[in-house]
Amino acid sequence: MVSSRERLTWTAINVPLDSSGTGRGEERAPNALMAAGLRERMPVGAVIETDARVRSTDRDKRTGVIGARQVREASRAVAAAVRDVLAGRGMPLVIGGDCTLLLGVFLGTAPGTRLWFVDGHADFLDGETSSSGEAADMELATITGHGPLGLLPGTDALVEPNAVVLLGHRPDELDPEVARENARIDPAIFALTAVEIRSRGARSVGQQIAAKQPHIPVWLHIDLDVLDEKALPAVTYPQPLGLDWQELIELIHALATAPQLAGVSVADYNPDLDKDGKYARRIVDALEVALT
Q: Is the pTM of this model over 0.90?
């Protein structure tokens, strides 16, 4: 548990997963963040490399998902790594890659683990409503039982909707497509947009959420496109009306230092859009402050 140690040792699980199947920059994000000092600054005691890639651009007819078979294979690889770290009483830090990695995370965590989902998008589409077919459009829907049937084994939700907190997605007024996706969010999910977080105060929101159910394990997922496009343009799907760096740090620091924390995942940095590595270093700076 985090509460007994100011600075714990993490086990990094590198997940070079880009669900578009095109080898986009997210595949290179784990290596880019390590090169920017993540291993030393966090600190990371060990690094596990996973064979988690999507190389097919074909959209599966049954699920509507690009490279569905490879998504399942990648998810099993991530699950095995997460399961091993948790079994050894370690603290996993899953470095993506895109948000599809969360499918594997929740295949590998203990039943009953809750989710704090910090993301600029709700990721609540499915194989029909997603225009791209990327699994990263629908991973939250999938693990809560609203995604395409057959993408993951079994029919049960990996996490119950009422065990999820969604933070930082954009408000309806940004775009009609955003509004349509937001309308799909299960009403049992507690959700605050980035605008609402700013209004309430990021530190206050984080502290209030962290204080709830302190004895039930919870996973913290951080999609870096929760940041405003001016703060972090090095993501594939940037948006306005997002958090700034300080707000993100204040929000996730309260969550990451909660005693019930089971692990953390970080996703969606695209180093192809960061030629001099400036934003990689900024991400590492923020994670060092927020997670330790």
A: yes
